[in-house]
Amino acid sequence: MTNEKLNEQVVRGVAKLSRLNLSDDELRMFAGQLADIIRYIDDLNRLDTAQTEPTSHAVSGIKDVFREDTVKPSLSPDEALTNAPKRIGDFFGVPKIIE
Amino acid sequence: MKTYNEYLKRIDEVDGRIRAFVHIDREAIHEEARRAKQGFLAGVPVAIKDNLCVRGEPTTCASRILAGFRPPYDAKVVEKLRASGALLFGKVNMDEFAFGSSCETSCYGPTRNPWDTGRIPGGSSGGSAAAVSSGEVPMALGSDTGGSIRQPAALCGVVGLKPTYGVVSRYGLIAFASSLDQIGPITKNVADAARLLTVIAGHDERDSTSVERKGTDYTKALIKDVRGLTIGIPKEYFIAGIDPDVDRAVKKAIQCLRDCGAHTVDISLPHSRYAVSCYYIIAPAEASSNLGRYDGVQYGLRGDESRGMIDMYSDTRTRGFGAEAKRRILLGTFSLSSGYYDAYYLKALKVRTKITEDFTNAFKQCDVIITPTTPTAAFKIGERVNDPLRMYLSDIFTIPANLAGIPGISVPCGFTGEHLPVGMQILGKHFDEETLFRAAYTFEQNTDHHLKEPPL
User: Fold this and answer.
1) What is the pLDDT, as a whole number, of residue B272?
2) Chain A residue at shortest CA distance from B402
3) Is B84 an annotated catalytic residue?
4) Which of A88, B192, B295, B304 shows a CA-CA span of 20 to 30 A to B315?
5) A55 vs B309, B315, B349: nearest CB
């Protein structure tokens, strides 16, 4: 694997997926830095993991957790909306989505 | 013990130079202090890292994107602190969203190291460590995803513990990397770390990764005796490239524990060299997903709405996140994207298994493992800001514990030639915090490093 994978074009695509607008200067800077990081990370390929199971959770013995579906006190609409940048009635206000 | 007013006075005296606090409401503290306090931490001031929700208080993760956010609820650890009688003593600085090892990515600017204000305090819990080190508070809470409690504790000359993953509820901790994050104490000495952990540990149904265990009084583990204890010394952590002063201090500390009756055994953690690579796939991948919620809809900053919803998301995120947050979102989105997922993310999860197995094997031969917490003492402000890879390597010795989920404590163990603190890291088996406390306490009680004060 080579660092060519993370060129400016790929970073532009990833930025779009991430909903980040990057200037040309930022694009150049991030592409260079991320290529360096990926070049370092590519060291992982020296390791044979064909027979290794992936770990997504560090502590074993944790199971799916279920609870009774009971009504409990929770935030009031006013509390839940205290931080809303824009509020319309009991809803978060956002720009129109459907024309 | 000092009164809370003396701590407030200390903050007035020194915080202009240290800049550990990002928010403190003195009126609320006075009001709280007037109420009779009872409990395990009655009247003890505790500073809170700015990524932990405190009801009604600014909680920003040191990010512009959460400007003005005041949570309508308390984090579980904050609830527990209140119930223990502790005095919540303001919010302290951190790297933005805990992305960093120096506190320099904070939107408020860097906190200073109390031992040399031209240097970084470490990160990301740099505000917590600097506040304790400079005597502004006796205790603070931090969070540790790849070393963010232990590394700043080491660089500021205080005690910092990352508990086993699952010991402390993460409810109300603003998420960075959910499979790695853990909240823990930063304190002046080992006994206080045990007291604070006793208060914050425990199962919480609102964090299903918190583990059901019987309540533990960790102060019972403060035993000044390590006879019969076997300490593993991993060769991979005493390598060329680490500061000779750090190497010397940690080896001297190990000798001290030997003199107290512990045995040592040479061990190998052969996959240690892959830990930083593994971490910088997994942590940014989880972060990029966790940070998807900052879109300007429900809280914090909202960008320009005039061109519709998608542009509002992008404008909010572009203006709200700093450079390191953007870098990690890009890296994480890349490694999770189609075409790269197997080569990077899945590969890293497999390497994580290998790193965890290293510890499982090592702990067949020893009770604890001792390493330097960091390869060097505190570096200068600005020194690594433009070299992210070099910054990432600051956490080379602390990251493996997060990947394996094991507990680790950093204890002051000496000073460099420039009189900067050095930390010794003690790692333990899953849920064996008691043995860490025993080893750390024995060392501390046989030395005087923790009694030294920074020249402020």
Assistant:
1) 94
2) A58
3) no
4) A88
5) B349
- pLDDT of the residue at A62: 67
Q: State the best of A12, A14, A78 to mutate against chain B, taking most chain B CBs within 10 Å.
A: A14
| Contact flag A45-B347 (C-beta cutoff 8 Å) | yes
Choosing from B49, B162, B188, B429, the catalytic residue is B49
Q: In angstroms, what separates the C-alpha of B99 from chain A's closest C-alpha?
A: 15
Residue B94 within any structural domain of the chain: yes
Q: What is the pLDDT of residues B111-122, one digit of tens each?
A: 999 999 999 999
Going from N- to C-terminal start, the domains of chain A cover 3-46
Residue B304 lies in a domain: no
Number of Cβ within 10 Å of residue B166's Cβ equals: 25
Q: Closest Cα to residue B131, out of B219, B225, B33, B8?
A: B8
pLDDT digits (tens, 9 = 90+) for A44-74: 999 999 999 999 887 766 677 888 899 999 9
Beta-carbon separation of B308 and A95 below 8 A: yes
Query: Domain containing B162: what range?
Result: 4-211+222-270+357-451
| Percent of all residues in chain B with a pLDDT value above 90, rounded to a whole number | 94
Q: What is the DSSP letter of B164?
A: P
B295–A contact, CB cutoff 8 A: yes
pLDDT of residue A3: 47
CA distances from B74 to B88, B176, B202 (A): 12, 18, 16
The strand pair at B368-372 and B408-415 is best described as unpaired
Q: What percent of chain A has pLDDT over 90?
A: 75
Residue tagged active-site, from B63, B125, B133, B148: B148
B394 is known as an active-site residue:
no
User: Is the domain covering A3-46 a CATH 1.10.20 domain?
Assistant: yes
- Asked, for residue B178, whether it belongs to a domain, the answer is yes
- Which segments in chain B show pLDDT lower than 50? none
Closest Cα of chain A to B251: distance in Å? 30
Find the CB nearest A47 among B274, B349, B405.
B274
SS3 content of chain A, % helix, strand, coil (to 5): 40, 5, 55
Known catalytic membership, residue B148? yes
Q: How many domains does chain B have?
A: 1
What is the token pair recorded at B133?
């080190």
Q: Which two tokens stand for residue B201?
A: 């540990």
